[in-house]
């Protein structure tokens, strides 16, 4: 089996090497429009400033928790925990540094046509995809190689979850404060177009796309990726020994290789970038399926484990189709929301909420079927392997997602620098595809987090030896109820933080329009930095409460009601958090696309009453889909890593176990 | 113990007798304003027409299910089931028949001052309170007396739950379709005041208050009341034998007696009707506490069971305080929502949602503490008894709640008939108190349903003998996940049904304003009946899907994944349904009261931009607090009764148990 570990480590290094190749390929492109360079540098500076300050906050928390872990669980756990945090931060750092450079180069490449621009943007996204999977796989493999025991790697998972929590929550607050501030004053009150350079919040808005959708999403998926690996290795070690540990690693290695191959397919020139990306996805999926089929035969002498893995891949495809159905503007559901806007804001809001609530049913059912099916095949290991299958396409999906903010930025830069119409047509085409892919990636991230949580839950059960966790015990059912409620409380913190931050941002943008003379005529420049600063401070302030809540809750329940109650808590969080996250993501996206559907000239088009109603829905949906919804992903998983780490302590020290 | 049953039966009859006394007292008051008689008769006719058609639909479902039950579980179950449905319908019929007569008499009594009007309105509400508790207790006692086995009464509980489901869902859709139709066209588009007789939907709106808040709420609480009794008797029989069965009955008998006493206190004249009602509540609570303390000593030779009961009473008080904090307009949270309306609709909506999500935390924690505390005292029986304690004040709370629509109607009738300003001042004072009490009753109904569900869950565990329901089994955790999602799907059906119904209503009201000449000048009368008919048809159509879902889901899960998975499903529904119901109720009420706070002259008052934003929030909140939220109550309990009934069948016939 050592050769498997060796192969997986090689795959991890290949990913990093490929990322390096893509980076050098992107950076050697020169940007020859000085105005573009200027805007791009402002975005870079803002993003880096934020990321540095965010990492400082995270570093403080990490240090504190590392000391606590060293004291309670030993140095090794503290060390792996710190490594997890550092590597996750590194992946985010690399990915974002590239995306804030790829954006302007995409705008530049748009001069040479759609194919070139797509190539740059997708390469930029793939850097994040490769960083996440490469660094994730490498970290897990190396730690396993050093310790020989998956249990020792749980701390690593906790470290990645901690960074993800802060990156998601902080990034989510940042981006929406900037977005709402820019839109509500700029577009609604002053009446200037989106991404207009006169808008003081425009740079903060562009920065937000990067810290939210690139760094935040990357850390989120990194965490799900690592935690699923660890959980499946834990279960694998117990049920199948070494092959059980090695198989998930090699499947993920295959995922990396197939994604590298697929990247070249996305580069083919063509008129329809959507088809190009789809071709890449399908190829990657096909290659992974074939490789894991062969490997399952080699490792286990049969195809049962392969079928479990395949279940995960099929789940991913179904997730994409369901998301498409509920959130795309060429489908009935979103058009219904658009039509409801005809009778005003209230009906737009209610119709969106009803859509979002309905849209939770199929994804949850699909996951439930996957659980049952894969469990019948090979027990708890099957459940974990279906999560691995789902996540085997991580590099491609993350690339697709990070592609979104890059082209969004490119389109914004083109707009801000007053580029030629042809360039803007290219960047706009890419941007509208970015909106499509983003919706699917959101669902992917939720599904990945839920599956990771379920895998962690299975591992927790195997680990604690609590073979029977009895919900007939009130401590367990109370755990479930508290879990069910926590997700709502957590969301309320986030919505409130965005509200407060947006309120400040609106005040500042209004102030600048009022006080800076010649701003509207373009004679003076706005103070972009002030807006960037407001978003930064609000985000850092807003992440404390939800961050603390998600770590304190399992610890408090564990040490009072015991290890079984924590299992209940965990289950309650998944049971309400999974549909709540889907609801928030789908509702927000549907409102967004209902607005876009109207803007395409339907139902009265831009400027109509109907459009005005849809704009309100879109604004309400912003923190739904980009702050509260995605942050729930991390909540589901962080409880799992804390629970796994402290399982034995809960059993020993609980007050009323 | 037979004497206890005798006493309880006597209490049940006393309640019915007292209701009769109150009815005769109300009916003997003459209404001498012909215009008032006319309006009141239109409301009566509309309400009765709807109730009759609703009962026809329910009768069809009841018959179908009775045949299925007779075939699968025997005639006795089918019979008790039918009896439960019939008695619940009877309680609703009586209560609503009185409330649609008490409304006009309250308006009439307002001539003699606040004291008289309060007396009539509260008496009218107390008829519903006495019907619910009297008929509920009597039904359970008689069936127990006849069969001697609480298990045989489960069918009765299912019957009440079925009627409650239809009454809540149907009433909720009816009332909000009418309300939104009346408001969105009348107040917003045409600009006529609320309850203006020129509005074609005004009668449907008044009818809606009765079928939603009186009949719907009554059936809801009736079901919680009966199911909690049955669950506690089931557990009591297993743990304490006959005294265990008799104690919950006698506590509820004491509840009835103390509520009758307290009614006389509400009759005392005074300037502040709020203090008067509070005095009544506190007296009733005190009497119940003393009686159950003495009885606990007599029955069990100790106070442990009493303490468990007391836990429930304390929980009720805390529920009221928490609701007050989050939903009253003289408190910070609602004022924050009002202030958020200054920056527009989007911030009003987000602020309300954040408030609602936050407001779920304390009630859930309080219930969790009550569960743990009462379980530590006397095991599962303690949990059931704390639910009984919570519900011991049912008569008073239902009276307070039914009082709401009566005074709301009275105020509407006064407005429609152009009564003197003094009369309208009296009815408006009573109405504003009604809004306060309604919010608390909503929380009460949610808490009661959740506690009933938890008691049913405990009974299910005792009954099935599934001493260990293992969430480590995927079938169980899948059950939890499906349960967590079902509440969202269920809500989406309801929001959509209200949306569709409101859409039709808006069309019809607009049509009448357009086509009926002289409507605005008051020369022609609108066609009220058409609007009543639209609400009726929409409500009956809208209740099919959620009704079917809530019965089919547990059956489908039970016969595929087995009895343990049903326990998981049940737990998942409570875990997400309880906070979701609180969220919907509190958010809706907070938006409503934020609007009222502004209408009192704050933040620009009526007609300001801020007010316009708050009106949209209020409209979105309508189906939250009056349709989807309350309907979740029934969903939580109906699964429990179905599960209890079919427990043994699930164990025997499940496909993959």
Question: How does this structure look, described?
Answer:
Two copies of one chain form a homodimer. With 657 residues, chain A is mostly helical. Helices cover 86% and strands 0% of the residues of chain A. The first copy, chain A, has helices spanning 2-27, 34-73, 75-109, 114-147, 154-190, 202-240, 242-266, 273-300, 304-327, 332-340, 345-358, 361-391, 394-416, 421-464, 474-515, 528-542, 544-561, 563-599, 609-653. In chain A, helix 2 packs parallel to helix 6 (202-240). The relative contact order of chain A is 0.13. The interface between A and B is large, with 80 and 81 residues.
Secondary structure topology:
The structure is a homodimer of 657-residue chains.
Chain A: H1 2-27, H2 34-73, H3 75-109, H4 114-147, H5 154-190, H6 202-240, H7 242-266, H8 273-300, H9 304-327, H10 332-340, H11 345-358, H12 361-391, H13 394-416, H14 421-464, H15 474-515, H16 528-542, H17 544-561, H18 563-599, H19 609-653
Helix pairs in contact in A: 1-4, 1-7, 2-3, 2-5, 2-6, 2-16, 3-4, 3-5, 3-6, 3-13, 4-6, 4-7, 4-13, 5-6, 5-15, 5-16, 5-19, 6-7, 6-12, 6-13, 6-14, 6-16, 6-19, 7-8, 7-12, 8-9, 9-12, 9-14, 10-11, 10-18, 11-18, 11-19, 12-14, 13-14, 14-18, 14-19, 15-16, 15-17, 15-18, 15-19, ...
Radius of gyration of chain A: 23 Å
How much β-strand is present in the residues of chain A?
A: under 5%
Uncertain spans of chain A: none
Q: Largest inter-chain interface?
A: A-B, 80 and 81 residues
> What is the subunit organization of this protein?
homodimer
**SS-based class of chain A:** mainly alpha
Number of helical elements of chain A: 19
Give the strand tally of chain A. 0
First-residue to last-residue Cα separation of chain A? 40 Å
Mean pLDDT of chain A: 91
- Helicity range of chain A: over 70%
Order of helices and strands of chain A: HHHHHHHHHHHHHHHHHHH
């Amino acid at each position: 089996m050592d050769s498997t570990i060796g192969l997986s480590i090689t795959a991890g290094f290949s990913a990093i090497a490929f990322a390096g190749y893509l980076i050098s390929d992107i950076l050697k492109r020169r940007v020859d429009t000085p105005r573009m360079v200027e805007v791009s540098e402002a975005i870079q500076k803002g993003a880096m400033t934020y990321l540095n300050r965010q990492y400082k906050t995270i570093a403080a928390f990490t240090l504190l928790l590392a000391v606590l872990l060293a004291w309670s669980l030993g140095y090794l756990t503290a060390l792996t925990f710190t490594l997890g945090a550092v590597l996750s931060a590194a992946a985010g750092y690399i990915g974002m540094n590239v995306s804030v450079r790829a954006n302007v180069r995409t705008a530049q490449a748009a001069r040479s046509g759609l194919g070139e621009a797509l190539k740059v943007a997708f390469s930029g996204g793939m850097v994040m995809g490769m960083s996440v999977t490469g660094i994730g796989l490498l970290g897990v493999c190396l730690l396993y190689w050093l310790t020989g025991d998956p249990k020792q790697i749980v701390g690593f998972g906790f470290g990645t979850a901690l960074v993800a929590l802060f990156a998601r929550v902080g990034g989510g607050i940042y981006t929406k404060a900037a977005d709402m501030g820019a839109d509500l004053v700029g577009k609604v009150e002053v009446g200037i177009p989106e991404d207009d350079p006169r808008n003081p919040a425009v740079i903060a808005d562009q920065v937000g796309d990067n810290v939210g959708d690139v760094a935040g999403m990357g850390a989120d998926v990194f965490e799900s990726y690592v935690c699923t690996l660890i959980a499946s290795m834990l279960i694998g070690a117990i049920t199948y020994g070494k092959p059980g540990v090695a198989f998930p690693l090699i499947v993920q290695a295959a995922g990396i290789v197939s994604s590298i191959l697929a990247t070249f397919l996305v580069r083919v020139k063509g008129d329809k970038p959507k088809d190009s990306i789809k071709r890449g996805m399908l190829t990657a999926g096909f290659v992974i399926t074939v490789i894991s089929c062969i490997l399952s035969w080699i490792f286990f002498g049969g195809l049962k484990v392969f079928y479990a893995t395949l279940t995960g891949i099929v789940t991913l495809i179904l997730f994409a189709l369901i998301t498409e159905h509920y959130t795309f503007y060429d489908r009935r559901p979103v058009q219904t929301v658009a039509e409801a806007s005809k009778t005003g804001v209230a009906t737009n809001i209610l119709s969106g909420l009803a859509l979002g609530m309905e849209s939770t049913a199929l994804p949850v059912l699909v996951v439930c079927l996957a659980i049952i099916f894969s469990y019948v095949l090979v027990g708890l290991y099957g459940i974990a392997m279906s999560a691995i299958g789902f996540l085997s396409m991580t590099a491609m999906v993350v690339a697709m997602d990070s592609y979104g903010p890059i082209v969004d930025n490119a389109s914004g830069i083109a707009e801000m620098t007053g580029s030629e119409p042809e360039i803007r047509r290219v960047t706009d085409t890419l941007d509208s595809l970015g909106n499509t892919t983003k919706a699917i990636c959101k669902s992917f991230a939720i599904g990945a987090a839920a599956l990771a949580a379920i895998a962690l839950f299975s591992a927790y059960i195997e680990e604690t030896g609590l073979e029977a966790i009895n919900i007939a015990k009130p401590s367990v059912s109370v755990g479930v109820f508290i879990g069910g409620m926590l997700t709502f409380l957590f969301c309320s913190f986030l919505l409130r933080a965005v509200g407060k931050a947006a309120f400040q941002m609106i005040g500042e943008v209004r102030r600048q329009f009022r006080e800076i003379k010649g701003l509207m005529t373009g004679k003076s420049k706005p103070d972009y930095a002030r807006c960037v600063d407001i978003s930064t401070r609000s985000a850092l302030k807003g992440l404390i409460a939800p961050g603390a809540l998600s770590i304190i809750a399992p610890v408090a329940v564990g040490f009072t009601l015991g290890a079984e109650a924590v299992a209940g808590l965990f289950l309650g969080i998944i049971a309400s958090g999974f549909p709540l996250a889907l609801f928030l993501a789908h509702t927000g996206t549907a409102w967004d696309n209902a607005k876009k559907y109207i803007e395409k000239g339907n139902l009265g088009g831009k400027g109509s009453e109907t459009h005005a109603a849809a704009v309100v829905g879109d604004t309400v949906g912003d923190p739904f889909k980009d702050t509260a919804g995605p942050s729930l992903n991390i909540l589901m998983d962080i409880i799992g890593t804390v629970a796994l780490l402290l399982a034995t302590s809960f059993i020993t020290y609980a007050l009323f176990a």
